[in-house]
Amino acid sequence: MTLHVDRLRSGGLIATYQCQSACPHCLYRGGPGRSPDYVSQEMAAACFAKALSLGCASMHVGGGEPLADPLGLAGVLAAAAETGMHLEYVETSASWYDDADEAVELLTELRAMGLSSLLVSLSPMHNGFVPLRKTLGVLEAARTAGVAVFPWQEHFLADVQAFDPEATHPFAAYLERFGPNYPAEILRRTWIHLGGRAFDLFAPVLGRKPVEAILAEASADCRRELADASHFHMDLYGDYVPGLCSGLACRVDDLGAPLDPERYPILTTLAESGISGFYEYAAALEEYQPLPGGYVNKCELCQDIRRHLTQRGWFESTELAPVEFYAAL
Ligand code: SF4
């Protein structure tokens, strides 16, 4: 059976992939090098309408940095109002913060347009790009503007406060201060999905295994992961990210019916025969050599096969998207 996503539970709209930060755990590989493209009001409305039609009445807005383009965000808020989509919160890294009065003014204007809640990133990974002063500044400005806030995640505050709040501190500084097992400590304290840049961040404490071991222990198919709509994402280009499998995509318009295997050969292969089937598929299509250092898990192998296909110019479908995701691999 091909992949069929017929219900959506809870998810987000990726407004842009560009971000001033390039956090080492970012699932979507956002960063300054990504395109500044921002979701249009029309596309946001189309994504919200599709989500509503499949049973999801509440979404968040993420990125990239959604507040990098306040006018664009105003369009998203208007699209939510127009379609009847409830926006739970908008994510921000606080990188845009400069001055308290300007921040209060901006957030007050956005509040009048429908911004009710901000998720403000607070972690050692973000602190590599955003000084704590900015993070705390946005939290305070939002409270003043009457916008609800939740720092994500507050338990990291004590760790980040160990450093100068006026400066950024790369993750290496945290390793030096808290020891080489600090990434394992982070995984004990919070859930971080292993995908995107997170493989490299956590590989030193998780280890990597040869491809044979990965294939031997992998489940027979990836249908459950790909069909999981409990934390889905749609993006500015009108693509839907199946499950948390960043770098894979189907068109939002194609949700609600079984995916056409000819249009989606990779998603169909992964849904039907998992990483083993995909490995064989890639080997038959394009010579693929697994990395000698191995992989953290089947998803890192999957990402590496997809990188290989994009580098070999494999454009038989639009499933490997956005292409920029693979550019830095
Ligand atoms: S192996 Fe690929 S398709 Fe399967 S869960 Fe991991 S990223 Fe998703």
TrEMBL record:
Concerning SUPFAM superfamilies, the annotation shows:
Radical SAM enzymes
Molecular functions per Gene Ontology = catalytic activity; iron-sulfur cluster binding; metal ion binding
Provide the cofactor list for this protein: [4Fe-4S] cluster
Q: Which organism is it from?
A: Solidesulfovibrio magneticus (strain ATCC 700980 / DSM 13731 / RS-1)
Q: Does the keyword Coiled coil apply?
A: no
The name under which this protein is listed is Radical SAM core domain-containing protein
Q: Which UniProt keywords apply?
A: Iron, Iron-sulfur, Metal-binding, S-adenosyl-L-methionine
